[in-house]
Amino acid sequence: MAEKKAFVLRIAPETLKELERWAQEEFRSVNGQIEFLLNDALRKHRKRSASEPDENQPSATDE
């Protein structure tokens, strides 16, 4: 398993309470839930970035 890096997260108390409830619903720790959400967001971002045309490359409609 890859080594994990610890860091401090400052978060609003209301947001933390919601994350705690959500994590409990999905049988995860709060840390596990945050990691799951971040990985999901990164996966979607990479997929979206890969499907978008490169802004530096002319598209067929630019010619």
From TrEMBL:
Q: Which Pfam families match?
A: RHH_5
Q: InterPro entries this protein is in?
A: Arc_rbn_hlx_hlx, RHH_5, Ribbon_hlx_hlx
Q: Which domain of life is it from?
A: Bacteria
From the record, give the transmembrane residue ranges: none
* Gene3D superfamilies linked: Met repressor-like (1.10.1220.10)
CopG-like ribbon-helix-helix domain sequence ranges: 16-46
According to its UniProt entry, the protein's GO biological process terms are:
regulation of DNA-templated transcription
Q: What is this protein called?
A: CopG-like ribbon-helix-helix domain-containing protein
Q: Which organism is it from?
A: Spirosoma montaniterrae
